[in-house]
Design brief:
Order of helices and strands: HEEHHEHHHEEHEEEEEEHHEE
Helix content: 25-40%
Shape: globular
Radius of gyration: 24 Å
Distance between the termini: 47 Å
Oligomer: single chain
Length: about 325
């Protein structure tokens, strides 16, 4: 009898230990890259295996660091700086690290009726955004002159090379680089066997999970508050608005998201959130949609079968919302009960 009890106790002890070591936990990591906060959350990790996630987190951080170092127009050693220093009318090879993102950016330039324009960087810099100084509304004549060199059509692309017609032309990947890096990290994590995670960089994020994750949409006018919550199992989310980087002149708000047709960062949209399967798509289309304004943005987002939330001022300066293909991202029945 004593031996039997001992065996039963030993079996119970092993079961309890097994339950303890197999407990599922959430692993999070935060760091700064692309001059913004990056957050990685891994869900459903065995408590006994948490040490094994350190390599995955470290490699993910390396991926962000690599793309930042290649796509930063203000880093002299970056591949993008190499492109931006090309002599006019001289055939120049596109660096390997940028070939795919340049190809994607050119396609998005067409899909968005040229509102997503990575060549608008000279205008952004003229306003003073990203230049480490206080932005200032530029003189109209100077803005018009700068607009002439802020056109992707001044680049002639052929296979993996290009020729630019004016040395003052510059490309900036601020509207797509973060999303591209997020997608690359997500691809890496999936290849390593992780299938329940969120990767987020400065508001651009991707979710891969069997269970919906609640994603908060930042309020464009009230600091540290949410204006909405969506529920995402598998999707990429990006938001663009006039509230992160902007100046106000004579009661008019001008932000860093420049309309490439006017040279001004103004819109009848306050904030737009786009959901797709790729973060770089959500990132680029959110940027373009804001610049387009409500009417055209609704048409283009519907045409490309994307999901979106558009916030704008209605009557009495009340913030109103337009939903586009959002049926799959509403709160599931019974969720959170």
């Amino acid at each position: 009898m004593k031996i039997t009890h001992v065996i039963k106790y030993a079996a119970l002890t092993c079961f309890l230990v097994s339950c303890t070591t197999d407990e599922k936990v959430k692993i999070t990591s935060s760091f700064v890259e692309f001059s913004t906060d990056v957050n990685i959350s891994l869900f459903g990790i065995n408590k006994s295996d948490t040490s094994g996630t350190s390599d995955a987190i470290s490699s993910s951080r390396d991926i962000f660091s690599y793309f930042n170092s290649e796509m930063n127009p203000y880093l002299e050693t970056s591949s993008l700086s190499f492109m931006n220093s090309a002599e006019p009318m001289v055939k120049t090879e596109i660096p390997n690290s940028l070939r795919q993102i340049i190809r994607i950016s050119r396609n998005l330039y067409k899909y968005t009726d040229k509102y997503f324009n990575v060549a608008v960087l000279p205008v952004v810099e003229l306003w003073g955004f990203y230049m480490g100084k206080e932005p200032v509304k530029p003189v109209e004549n100077l803005l018009k002159e700068t607009m002439k060199i802020s056109d992707l059509d001044l680049y002639n692309f052929e296979n993996d090379s290009f020729v630019v017609s004016d040395k003052r032309c510059r490309i900036g990947l601020g509207g797509i680089a973060k999303g591209y890096a997020v997608d690359s990290v997500a691809h890496y994590l999936l290849s390593e066997g992780y299938n329940d995670f969120i990767v987020e960089a400065g508001g651009d994020l991707i979710v891969r999970s069997k269970e919906p994750k609640n994603i908060g949409i930042k309020h464009p006018r009230i600091e540290n508050e949410l204006i909405d919550t969506i529920y995402v199992c598998s999707g990429a989310v990006a938001t663009s608005g006039d509230y992160e980087k902007y100046i106000e002149v004579d009661g008019e708000r001008y932000c860093h998201i420049i309309n490439p047709y006017t040279g001004y960062g103004t819109s009848d949209i306050i904030s737009v959130t786009v959901i797709s399967e790729k973060t770089y798509l959500s990132d680029a289309f959110a940027t373009a949609a804001f610049a387009m304004g409500r009417e055209k943005a609704e048409y283009v987002l519907e045409k490309n079968k994307l999901s979106a939330l558009i916030y704008y001022y209605g009557e009495g300066q009340k913030i109103e919302k337009k939903e586009i293909n959002m049926e799959n991202y509403k709160k599931p029945v019974g969720y959170g009960l």
